[in-house]
Amino acid sequence: MPMQSAMLRAALLTSGLAVQSAYAYTQVNVPSPFMYKNIDPIVFPGEQDKSHLHSFFGSDAVTVSTTTSDELRAGCTNAENPNDLSVYWVPTLLYKSASGALEPVPVGRFSAYYGLGDSPAEVPIPDNLAMLAGDAKATTFDDMPAEAHATWACEGDAASPLDANGFPSEGCSAILQQLLYFPNCQYPRA
Questions:
Q1: What's the Cα-to-Cα distance from 138 to each of 41, 133, 142, 143, 187, rounded to whole Å?
Q2: Which of 2, 113, 136, 138 suits 149 as a labelling partner, its CA being 20 to 30 A distant?
């Protein structure tokens, strides 16, 4: 299945396949992941356990081989909008529990914001849109491409210095927040 080579090179920090049409500005809210899996249908299509662990939000019809919006429409969603059958996934952030086991950090909310940036036009999100941000092989903040625009912060707390991996160096009083910014343009699959 051909994909534009830039998409393959970009690897994955956060990805998704968009189904719904959105105009001007849309916010998608999902309360929690519906699954954790070592799959990535964009970076490693059809390849089980090649990817790092991801948290999935949205359409539960996603599989390791999902490539189209039609496939996602066959599922159900855990998004607040029951008509939003897009799927989103992010690397699962883990912590070491008291027993020593690695556990997913609880997610309070996942939100995706679709905006036009500086464009005055209203353009619907096309079917089969696949977007990537980051680099799946990055192990430190400095390894991440600058265009990924990924940041971590403690929501509602004063800013604290970031550690080598880009996380706040002090514990958060409430919510650890990750912000990811994608480009305001699209590149169709080849």
A1: 19, 12, 8, 5, 23
A2: 2
Distance CA 84, CA 187 (A): 22
Rounded distance between C-alpha atoms, residue 41 and residue 12, angstroms: 10
pTM of the model: 0.76
Domain limits, the chain = 5-138
Helix (H) or strand (E) holding 178: strand 175-180
On whether the CB atoms of residues 157 and 172 are closer than 8 A, the answer is yes
Side chain identity at residue 124, one-letter code? P
* Range among 8-22, 24-38, 120-134, 137-151 with highest mean pLDDT value: 24-38
Q: Is the pLDDT of residue 88 over 80?
A: yes
List the beta bridge partners of residue 55.
Answer: 36, 90
CB atoms within 10 A of CB 66: 22
The CA-based angle 22-148-73, given to 5 degrees, is 35
Residues near 158 by Cβ (< 8 Å), separated by ≥ 6? none
Report the alpha-carbon distance of residue 32 to residue 85 in Å, rounded.
15
